[in-house]
Amino acid sequence: MACSCGGLAPFTVHKGGRDSSWHVTRTGVCLACAASETKQPQVVLTRERGKNGQLMQALQQRGISVLEMPLVETTPGPDRDGLPEALQHGANDWVVITSPEAAAVFLRGWESAGKPQMRLAVVGAGTGKVFQSAAQPALTIGFTPSKANAEHLSAELPLEHGTSVLYPASAKAGSTLQEGLEQRGFKVRRLNTYNTVPVQHLQPSDVEAARGASVAAFASPSAIKSWIGLVGGQESADVAIACIGSTTAEAAEKQGLKKVYFPDAPGLEGFVDAIVRALEQSNRSRVLSAA
């Protein structure tokens, strides 16, 4: 099927919720034309300010109009001040890091501790890149699970290097990782080093524009809760939801959202793909409704 501009509309490869069946269709409209038909943004990016740049650029290069509207921000957690001492004096066989934000907070505490030698277990490639960019010889990434989630990390972390684990985490992180490790015999010390809280002040014009978007993109369960509180459950159900990974997607589904898209492997490329798939399907539904 060709778009009205003469260009070929892209394929959509999508998966309905957690249905096992995949469908391949043409959307009937190319993304660039869909963007030009309306002044409303097609996609809302909700990550913390300063974390949307690469994603925004990748989407805009595809002709997709974007609104950056951060819905959460990071604040110090109750245990942040205790992190340097835990790194200096704790017998830590592993330090487990489960997000880029946790990595950034850890690095600040680690520098305050005098940069001791540490063996790290990171949940996935996105988190690992934070340490690769830091290029600190004293930090060794000793383990990354086969799939980037708490279940696989807790099930696969090697026991032969020792059982003492330091887990600097978000105060809102669930207990899946800690409980899974403890069930296998690890001794876990969790420090809630940071928290994510809703942004308190948003521009009314941004909120109004966001309500008309086709896709809302999320990188954390906290942002999804903020979105529903801002937009409302019914209006949220009408918007396609693109998530950075399975944990955020599961949180979206638990909130009753149905049009949820997410990649198998978290990271920028997979996140972009999930957003594009969500947008193509939303455009196709709009075309069919107008027919």
How would you summarize what this structure contains?
This protein is of the alpha/beta class. Helices cover 40% and strands 22% of the residues. The protein starts with 10 loop residues before the first strand and ends with a helix.
Description:
This protein is of the alpha/beta class and 291 residues long. It is built from 12 helices and 13 strands. The chain has helices at residues 31-36, 53-60, 83-89, 100-112, 125-134, 150-156, 176-183, 204-211, 221-231, 233-237, 246-254, 268-290, and strands spanning 11-15, 22-26, 43-45, 66-68, 72-76, 94-97, 118-122, 139-143, 164-170, 187-198, 215-218, 240-243, 260-261. Helix 2 (53-60) links the parallel strand 3 (43-45) and strand 4. The strands form 3 sheets. The chain has a 6-stranded mixed beta sheet. The chain has 2 domains: 11-71 and 199-290, Rossmann fold (3-Layer(aba) Sandwich); 74-197, 3-Layer(aba) Sandwich (Rossmann fold), CATH 3.40.50.
